[in-house]
Amino acid sequence: MYTLDAFDDTHHEQFMDQGYLRLGKVLSAGELSAIQQRIDDIMLGHVKYEHMRMQLFETDGTTRQTIGNEVATLAYRRIDDLEQDPLFLTYIQHPLFRQIAQRYIGEQVSVFRSMFMNKPPEVSQPLPWHQDVGVGWGIDTNPIVTVWTAFDEATIATGCMQIVPSSNQYGIINKNHYLPEETQDHYAPVEKVIELEAEAGEAILLHNFLLHRSGTNSTTSPRRAFSVTYMDASTRTLDTGQSFPIIFGEMALAPATVNGKPAALVKKLYG
Ligand SMILES: O=C(O)CCC(=O)C(=O)O
C-alpha cells in the first residue's frame, strides 16, 4: 500500500469534501510492531506512567477508569495521555501530521487527546454515531484534525469504523456528540454508510465533524487503534482554562526529554 508523503491541494479538497482521507501506511512494519509491543507493555504494566488515564473492561463487561496501571490485562478499552511515551510521541510528531497540522492549525499545535481505542476479543462495545465536537468536550475551539491509525487490521468482523462520507458538511449537528436516534435516518441513512476497513499500520485523516461509529469485535484477535486530535495550542478548557500539551512549535514536547505528564493535566477527562 502507498504512503502519502506530502499533503497537497487535491488532498485538501478531498478531505473537506469527503470528511476523511486515507493517508496510507504511515507506520512501517518495524514501527508497527514496536508500537503494538509498547501498547501491550503499557496495558500489562511492563511500562508504567503514573499519570495516564486508562479505562479497563471488568469481567462483567462494564468499564472502570484508573489513573495509571492498576491491573495487568490486555482488556483495556481506552488509554489516554500517550504523548508522554517517547515512541508514541515520535509517531504523533510524524512529518506528514506536522504538515497537515500546519495547514489547518498553524505553527503552535497542541494535542487534545492521544487515545488508544481497543476492541479486545469478547468484551468490546459498539460506539454509537457521533461527531467529535470541541465545545461538547468542554474546550473553547472546535478542532477538525484527527488522525486515526489502525494497529491491527480493522474489518467488519473486528469492529471497524463506519462513516457517512461528507457528513462533516452538516457542521455541528449536536454539540453533545451523539446523533439522536430519531435523526439517524436523516443524517446516517444506510445507503450512505460505508465501512472504513483498514490495514494494520494504515492512518486515516478524519474531520472531527464526520459522523462515525464502530461495531463490536467478533473475532479472537484484538482490534487496536490510536486516535490523535490536533488543535491550536491556544485552546483552553471552558471550566478551568487549562491548556494542552504542545506537539508542534515553540516549547513542544520532545521524545528524548518527555518525562511523564503533570497530575494537574489528568484530573479530568474532557474528550
Ligand atoms: O476506534 C474507534 O472505534 C472509534 C474511534 C473514534 O471514535 C475516534 O477516534 O474519534
Task: Please describe what this structure looks like.
The chain is α+β, with helices and mostly antiparallel strands and 271 residues long. The chain has one domain: Jelly Rolls (Sandwich), CATH 2.60.120.620. Strands 1, 2, 3, 4, 5, 7, 10, 12 and 13 form a nine-stranded antiparallel beta sheet that branches. A four-stranded antiparallel beta sheet has the order 6-11-8-9, with no helix packed on it. It is globular, with a radius of gyration of 17 Å. The mean pLDDT is 96. It binds 2-oxoglutaric acid. 2-oxoglutaric acid binds next to strand 7, strand 11 and strand 12.
Lay out the secondary structure.
Blueprint: H1 9-18, E1 20-25, H2 29-44, E2 53-57, E3 63-67, E4 76-79, H3 86-92, H4 95-104, E5 109-119, E6 127-130, H5 134-137, E7 145-150, E8 161-163, H6 184-187, E9 194-196, E10 202-207, E11 212-214, E12 223-232, E13 246-248
Antiparallel strand pairs: 1-10, 2-3, 2-4, 4-5, 5-12, 5-13, 6-11, 7-10, 7-12, 8-9, 8-11
The site of 2-oxoglutaric acid (AKG) has 10 residues, from strand 7, strand 11 and strand 12.
Please sum up the structure shown:
The chain has 271 residues and is an alpha+beta fold. The chain is built from 6 helices and 13 strands.
